[in-house]
Design a protein that fits this description.
mainly alpha
Length: 167
């Protein structure tokens, strides 16, 4: 499992770099697809609860180190999302289009909800999505639309991202 988590962090770092450089130039209402979130959801879904939590934590920690977010914010949010996506393993059959879209849409809304709750507790420290602004809805559309392509891409690296004994 350690190999899978290390490769997840490598993929997350590359995705975070891509998000902040290339994709930021084609942002829709200031939003870009959260590829790291999609990677966490994929790894959690194919590997289960523990791998999902670890993938979420270490990917989030990587984001915390390379961004201006408060230390631990991304790690907390992505650990929770990884755990929930890991619970879905075996309960929902992964197809190539609808389930990736649904999982990433739910993960995006969960991320927004967690950020909102944390912004209530830690006022002025945690930025939340304003519901009236189009940023959240644009990110939701982008994450949902990009999920099938991202999952198909990640499937090509199954030997690196999927643990032994996992079908």
């Amino acid at each position: 499992m350690a190999k899978n988590i290390i490769w997840t962090v490598v993929f997350s770092f590359v995705a975070a770099t891509l998000q902040s450089t290339l994709l930021s130039h084609v942002a829709l209402y200031g939003a870009v697809p959260d590829l790291v979130l999609g990677i966490v959801v994929y790894v959690a879904y194919v590997n289960g609860l523990m791998a999902g939590q670890l993938a979420g934590f270490f990917s989030g920690l990587t984001l915390d180190l390379i961004s201006a977010a408060p230390m631990g914010l991304n790690a907390l949010i992505r650990t929770l999302i990884g755990a929930l996506a890991g619970i879905a393993r075996g309960r929902v059959v992964l197809d190539y289009v609808l389930i990736p879209m649904a999982l990433c849409a739910l993960a995006t809304m969960l991320k927004a909800g967690l950020l909102f709750l944390l912004s209530l507790v830690f006022q002025n420290s945690v930025p939340a999505y304003p519901l009236a602004a189009p940023t959240l809805w644009a990110e939701l559309v982008l994450n949902t639309a990009s999920a099938p392509l991202l999952f198909a891409f990640l499937r090509r690296f199954g030997s690196l991202l999927v643990g032994k004994g996992v079908v």
